[in-house]
Structure formats: structure tokens, C-alpha cells
Amino acid sequence: MQKLLENRQDIELLVNTFYQKVLADERIGYMFSHIQGSHWQKHLEKMYRFWESNIFDLDSYQGNPMLQHIRVC
Ligand code: HEM
């Protein structure tokens, strides 16, 4: 059943579920293999902030996704 994103808890569930699928994906999962231990939790927390900033118009993420992706490509 689909559910509207209403709060931070919903964002965390979405991001966690999404990354479980990403890590299991044979085409892109390996691109995240450099992220280990506490770095992984930091990455997830960054992604929560990214999405809550965009969806709820907050200011909790101040990063540069484009630069980060240029680095990993
Ligand atoms: C196949 C597609 C994608 C791949 C393989 C990918 C991969 C990555 C990787 C490897 C990182 C760095 C993680 C780290 O070392 O901490 C990253 C960061 C990030 N990605 Fe992606 N990404 C993809 C698509 C997207 C899309 C579509 C979005 C948003 C619409 C997105 C948003 C971000 C953000 C916000 C960060 C954090 C940037 C920062 O450090 O501030 N990514 N991604």
C-alpha cells in the first residue's frame, strides 16, 4: 500500500528500504562498497537530510551532490 511522506520517520524508512535494494543490485551495488561501518550511517543520515530538505522545504542539507558524483564516476 502506498503512503504519503509525512515526517522524518517516513523519509528514513524510504531511504533505508531504497538502499537495501541498491546494495543488492548487481549493476550499481558495487559503487557503494567503499562505504564501511560508521561511514555508512553518516551517508544514510546525509541522505535523510537531503530528502527532508527537498520534500519538506527544510535547510538541513548543505552539500554538493553533483561534485560528489563526479568524484565517484
Ligand atoms: C545510479 C545512480 C547513483 C549512484 C551509483 C550514486 C552513488 C553515490 C555515491 C557512491 C555517493 C557517495 C557516498 C559516500 O561516499 O558517502 C553518493 C552521494 C550522494 N548521492 Fe548519489 N548516486 C546515484 C544517484 C543519486 C540520485 C538520483 C540522487 C538524488 C536525486 C543522489 C543523491 C546523492 C546525495 C545527496 C549524495 C551525498 C552528497 C554529499 O556528500 O553531500 N544520488 N551517491
Automatic annotation (TrEMBL):
Cite the GO molecular-function annotations of the record: heme binding; oxygen binding
- Signal sequence region: none
Q: What protein name applies here?
A: Hemoglobin
Q: Which organism is it from?
A: Testudinibacter aquarius
